[in-house]
Amino acid sequence: MASLPGRQKGFLVESGPNGTVEHETFTCCHCNRPKVVPHRATPEEAGGFCMRCMQMTCHACGGTGRCEPFEKKIEAYEARSKMLQSFEPARY
Length: 92
Description:
Blueprint: E1 9-16, E2 19-27, E3 34-37, H1 43-46, E4 48-50, E5 55-57, H2 59-62, H3 70-87
Antiparallel strand pairs: 1-2, 2-3, 4-5
């Protein structure tokens, strides 16, 4: 798998009775879940690639056809929370 700029990646190390196995991982830019990358997989085999935000996605998020970055979801949640707090009556 080619190295992509801005891609969040890491390694998973599994230890067991048969030895130690390492896997490359990436974090989906839309749902923020870590995913294991099969050895020598293309972006499509690993999950997908969002052409709008130019980052790797998992199969579930890649199949939707929409670009919904996780950062935008968090910002919307924070904005909604602040708005709801502004409607609460002042407590004295």
